[in-house]
Structure formats: C-alpha cells, structure tokens
Amino acid sequence: MNRVWSTIVFAGIGTYTMRASFLVFAHRLTQLPPWVLRILRQIPPAALASLVVPALLRPEGTIDFFQPRFAAGVIAAVVAWRTRNTALTLVVGMGALLALRAL
Q: Which pLDDT score, from 0 to 100, does residue 60 have?
C-alpha cells in the first residue's frame, strides 16, 4: 500500500473514531450544569443576529440608516416583538421592503 492510500485509510479511521467517541460519551452531555444550558441557548440567536444585522445595516459595505432594508427590518422587528408570530413578521417585513423599494 502506498503513502496516499495509507493517508486515506488513517484519515478515515481517525474520522470514524472521533464521530464514534460522541456516542460513547453521549450520556455525559445530558448532565450539563444549568449555567451551561443557559449559555448554549443563546448561541442560535447570536448566530442569527451576526448574519442579519450586517445585512440590514451595511448591504453595500457602508452603514446607511436611510435605506429600505433597514426600515423594513425595524418594522419587522416591531411586529415580531409585539405579536411573536413568525409568519406575520415575514409577510410584514417583506411587504414593507417591497413597498419601500417601490417608493
């Protein structure tokens, strides 16, 4: 067996071992302290905010508060805050964006 195939086989074994180790130690992941669970619950909103906020504030690379995306985002945020309805937030936000772009 040459060097390339040895590398492929060992990489496969290493990958399989890393993935299988999570199954072996999965029971420990269910017993996390409450403070760790609180922190882990904050990761999805933080990741979403890191994607959405730059797209609202800097769509062309510079900060512009007087553009349709930002205004539609503010309107959608108010709808989301008041109603907690995801579908309504999407419809109102997209409607506001389309209406503001048409102006």
A: 78
